[in-house]
Amino acid sequence: MFPICFVLLVLIARDCNSQDDEGPYRGKFIGKLNSYHHQVSGDVYAVDDWTLLLVDFNYDGTGDDTFFWAGDSGRPGPMGYIVPDQHGKTNILERYYNEELRLRLPDGRKVSQIAWLAVYDIASQNAFGDVYVPEEFEAPAPRALAPLAPAPGARVSSGRVRFLDASTFIIPEFRYDGSGEEVYFWTGVGPQPSSRGMKIPDEDGYLEPIRAYNGEDVQLVLPGGKTVFDADWIALWDAGSRAALASVLVPDALNVPPGVMKIHNHKTSLPHCKQLHRDYQVSWEVFGNQVTIQLAGQVGENEYMAFGISGSDTSSAMLGADVAVAAWDARLKRGLATDYNITAKTPCVSVLGQWRGVCRDERLGAQDSNQVFSAARDDGLTVLSYRRQLAPSEPIDREWPTEKPVFVVWAVGALDHELEPAFHRLYHKHDVRLQLAQNPPENDCFPFTIGGRAPAPAAWERAALTDPALRVFRAALGPAGGARGLAGRARAAPARAWYVNGQLAPDLQLRRGLHYTVKVRQRPARARPAAAPRPALHGQGTSTASSRPTCSCAAACTTRSRYVNGQLAPDLQLRRGLHYTVKVRQRPARARPAAAPRPALHGQGTSTASSRPTCSCAAACTTRSRYVNGQLAPDLQLRRGLHYTVKVRQRPARARPAAAPRPALHGQGTSTASSRPTCSCAAACTTRSR
Questions:
Q1: What is the pLDDT of residue 369?
Q2: Does 384 reside within a domain?
Q3: Residue 1 domain-assigned?
Q4: Whether residues 291 and 361 fall in one domain
Q5: Are 343 and 323 in contact (CB under 8 A)?
Q6: Distances in whole angstroms, Cα of residue 237 to Cα of each of 183, 186, 196
Q7: Which terminus of the chain has fewer CB atoms gathered within 10 Å of its CB, N or C?
Q8: For the chain, which ranges sit under pLDDT 50?
Q9: Is residue 474 part of a domain?
């Protein structure tokens, strides 16, 4: 009696949990098709209450008027209805051989309401094969668990955790203060959370410490094709203290719909592997004085994968980094891993005769140190392997040390029209440190999955300013809008974009012969790390000018300069006979002491000039002004045909306690000029001049 009961319990457990050893979870098993004619066979599963899954389905396709047929009568017969095929069509069935089909019941009918599914021939009114749905059948559906139970003292709370399918779950109203330095979403097996679990990527696919959450609904996906049947608990794990901040237990044999993802068959052959992101991993092997690196990522055909040594020895820093930019050339069917050096977070441009930005080593006068030896792209996964020397061969290269941990950087983004890396969409948000020659090898990579990703959101409709009466445009810089903004329009989108009259990068309809005004709203500029080339403006129309610091340290700037159309003191190319408008943006001026009357020198002969400061603190003054005959930058009245002598006397001048009046010199003869500071100390300068 006891062996019979044990067998029944095993059969019941297998029927409730359709996760068997022969393949992935497909849903709740209904049964095998009974075969009567035309070699009909296959297994039938319920995906949810509206969808059926046929696995290893066979039919010879020789029936005259044969369809998928369902009904709620006692047995298959005329009292039924056609179930559309895998394409949603009601055509006569063709030949099938070991195929997997998803059939959705029509008109909102449910699996729990039908009694059978058949391959039925309407002309002969014969069933070539059928399967019966058990009574009181409960189809898979999303299931709610308990809320996350916080540990004592942990500031974590949530609603009831809900599994949408076997791989996807939601933590509703999730709250966490973000105080932990190494806190991750975590899952594993066992009676309670432990360090033997694995990370769950966050809602954006990152495997880095999570941020603070304030009542958000967080949707997560178990990594590497794992399902709810591979997890005993879900937790918020603090790796620093090796303790769970909150957790919830997952019941056995949860009757949920199967996930729509499939596991990609890629598996690296290199011993070391690091999962940088849900969609990106790097593996490597050190042999002698060389390192072999393999990059694998689920990226688009026009996207790149960047990886390399950090520009800093103490953190993962992009500036100064030595990276490889890998991409797949779909036209030539080959992979590229170009050696780049990052000197600024901008595209590669020439500044005062030197290349700065994200530049190829070859453009900087060096050689490409990477040697590509394999590349492939399959099912949206790009895999590329290359080799390079550990020791730097040129001054701009960085060393790959094996005796100590090394900080690395990585990024994923789009290639622009010149196949150069543009602004990244994925990148490291925390420090990433690797031990290249660790023994035993480090490997935390998990398989890539295919499908199941939400499609990219549609781009917002591009606005168009076509009003013929519109003559004034107001422009300002702002966010580029992410995937629905410029990224949805262009191949490579920047991080910031122009807003014109409140619209994101709209189309402008202009007419020839009309005068238009563009008013640019410009914020005060921060210090520039290096001097930029002086641009030349050759356009016609209206320009907007403003005043900004001209030095590299905002706290020490003592003079102001002109910015025209956002450019620092550019050259303007103007044409005769045309009308130009200059709109000057003036900030409210601070109170100034009353200016003294400006003297005029009307005498003739020789004038003596010396240099003195124009402000109260000589120690911080950085510019100098001319004093003529003891007067600060006076007006000189000169006459044609006369000879004048200017004697220049140069010596360090002391600061005056207060600004002197600006005199006017109307005399004739000889004057002497010198250069002196024009301001007081940087902290006290409060005025600007045009």
A1: 92
A2: yes
A3: no
A4: yes
A5: no
A6: 5, 6, 11
A7: N
A8: 1-17, 19-21, 525, 527-559, 589, 592, 595, 598-599, 603-607, 609-622, 653, 655-656, 659-660, 662-690
A9: no
Looking at the structure, tell me whether residues 181 and 314 fall in a common domain: no
Q: Is residue 526 part of a domain?
A: no
User: What are phi and psi for residue 266, nearest 5 degrees?
Assistant: -70, 135
**In contact, 638 and 573? CB cutoff 8 Å:** no
Written as six digits, the tokens of 622 are 């950085």
Number of domains in the chain: 4
pTM passes above 0.70:
no
Cβ-based neighbour number of residue 442 at 10 Å: 16
Question: Rounded to an integer, what distance in angstroms lies between the CA atom of residue 551 and that of residue 582?
Answer: 24
What are the tokens at 246? 């909150």
Give the total residue count for the chain: 690
The two structure tokens encoding residue 236 = 């918020």
Look at the alpha carbons of 276, 278, 280, 283 in this order and tell me if their dihedral is positive or negative: positive
Candidates 646, 616, 611; CA nearest to 630 is 611
> Which phi and psi angles does 121 have, rounded to 5°?
-100, 115
Q: Which two tokens stand for residue 224?
A: 């590497």
CA torsion sign, 237 to 242 to 243 to 245?
negative
Under DSSP, is residue 488 helix (H, G, I), strand (E, B) or coil? helix
Among 408, 429, 450, the domain-final residue is 450
Same-domain check for residues 300 and 400: yes
CA 274 – CA 214 distance, rounded (Å): 30
Kindly list the distances between the CA atom of residue 334 and the CA atoms of 270, 280, 294, 359, in Å, as whole numbers in the listed order.
21, 19, 15, 22
- Tokens linked to 177: 């203060």
Phi-psi region of 567 (alpha: psi -120 to 50; beta: other; left: phi over 0): beta
Q: Are residues 99 and 237 in the same domain?
A: no
Scored b (16 or more CB within 10 A) or e, 618-639 reads bebbeebbbbbbbbbbbebeee
Residue 514 burial (C-beta neighbours within 10 Å; 0-12, 13-18, 19+)? exposed
Q: In this structure, are 126 and 147 located in the same domain? A: no
- Quote the Cα angle for 208-214-219, to 5°: 60
| Residue 125 near residue 118 (C-beta atoms within 8 A) | no
Asked if residue 402 and residue 322 are part of one domain, the reply reads yes
Which residue in the block uniquely carries the two structure tokens 């937790």?
235
CATH number, domain containing residue 359:
2.60.40.1190
Q: Are residues 365 and 424 in the same domain?
A: yes
Q: How far apart are alpha carbons 122 and 455 in whole angstroms?
A: 40
- Whether the upstream peptide bond of residue 613 has omega within 30° of 0, thus cis, is no
| Contact present, 614 and 626 (Cβ < 8 Å) | no
- Residue that is last in its domain, among 420, 450, 480: 450
In this structure, what are the phi and psi dihedrals at residue 225, rounded to the nearest 5 degrees? 75, 10
Domain carrying residue 641: 604-670
3-state helix, strand, coil in the chain (%, to 5): 5, 40, 55
304-319 tens-digit pLDDT: 999 999 999 999 999 9
Q: Where do we find the tokens 């668990």? A: 145
Three-state secondary structure readout of 2-55: HHHHHHHHHHHHHHHCCCCCCCCCCCEEEEECEECCCCCEEEEEECCCCEEEEE
- The answer on 170 and 302 residing in a single domain is no
Structure tokens at 395: 């001054």
